[in-house]
Amino acid sequence: MAKVQIKVNDNGSLRITGDIELLDGEGNVFETKPVFSLCRCGLSNNKPFCDGTHKGKFESAVRAPVKDSEQA
Question: Over the chain (72 residues), what is each successive 10-residue block's mean pLDDT?
Fold first, then answer.
């Protein structure tokens, strides 16, 4: 099975790359492409997808913790 990648973009969306199935709360399937972005700010008019409305209105730069072995 190929690995799916989810990238938390600075001040923006969650960028999804890979073959996944995206479902709503009732189990209905959203049509997706191999690469798409999900809204993280709540401002999109095309939820759950990002439409760029966040630009200049949303700030978040999340970083994963650095493991001890990577600090060298």
Answer: 92 97 98 97 98 96 87 57
